[in-house]
């Protein structure tokens, strides 16, 4: 299960509330540091000079994408002239909380650091909207399908690493049955259900799993048909993550890449991808028709010829 422990500090006199797991706490800390910087009339360049680091590192700190050391927080609070002892103590306590490992940390040997950030955000999101062009999303994959995908990688990982990565992928799926559960809305290109990944038996089981999961009240699956032609998602798959505390934790866009990842949280960027998602939903089949198309794809898979 995802890290569901929580604690809270009353938000009085500008003190920051502490809720959620380590990734959310890191985002809260970053947002609070950004607010204090702007209130002090300082730029990112001022913060970078204070810490002796790059502008991009300060930006990543404020976006909650990298860990923040207590010494760095203290330096920034000095720069921003935050003198209230109680407020400083609350922020330094929050800094310690951000360094608490999430349940996924034990898989750090098989998962890149940049993807650990996404797993933390996914585990604590209240809404997840995804567009996929070629693959069943990880949250909906069966173990055998995931194994086939991993074994197709150009740099073949050892078998034990593959199995560990599958454990993590299945562990992530616990968010769909947790409390509270996020709303998951997936739009997938028809190519996702037509490409036979792992062979006929594996693919039939995967499609059957999609049909079953799509009946859950918090899961919506739509298929974007080939006959629809060009569509709004042809450039790249993406994920929109929303959070219950939208005022302090705005929506974020995640784009997966072969050697890293891209996180977008500027309002204009997020609005663009939200519009993309709306257009994809409008272009795709509705839930019932999509479920029927998945069933037809499953029935249409031919067995491999003997010998």
Please render the helix and strand layout as text.
Layout lengths: L21 H18 L4 H8 L3 H8 L7 H10 L5 H14 L14 H12 L2 E6 L10 H9 L7 H14 L10 E7 H5 L5 H14 L5 E6 L13 E5 L9 E6 L2 E5 L2 H17 L3 H13 L8
Parallel strand pairs: 1-2, 2-3
Antiparallel strand pairs: 1-4, 4-5, 5-6
Helix pairs in contact: 1-5, 2-3, 2-4, 4-5, 7-8, 10-12
Strand order of the largest sheet: 3-2-1-4-5-6
Class per helix and strand makeup: alpha/beta
**Helical content band:** 40-55%
Topology pattern, helix = H, strand = E = HHHHHHEHHEHHEEEEHH
Dominant shape: elongated
The span between the termini is 43 Å
Q: Report the mean per-residue pLDDT as an integer.
A: 86
Name the CATH class of the largest domain. Alpha Beta
At the third CATH level, what is the topology name of the largest domain? Endonuclease, Chain A
Q: In the CATH hierarchy, what is the architecture of the largest domain at level 2?
A: 2-Layer Sandwich
For the CA atoms, what is the radius of gyration?
22 Å
Q: What is the makeup of the main sheet? A: 6 strands, mixed
Number of strands: 6
Oligomeric status: single chain
Helix count, per DSSP?
A: 12
- For the record, the count of structural domains works out to 2
Strand content: 5-15%
Q: Which regions contain 5 or more consecutive residues with pLDDT less than 50? A: 1-19
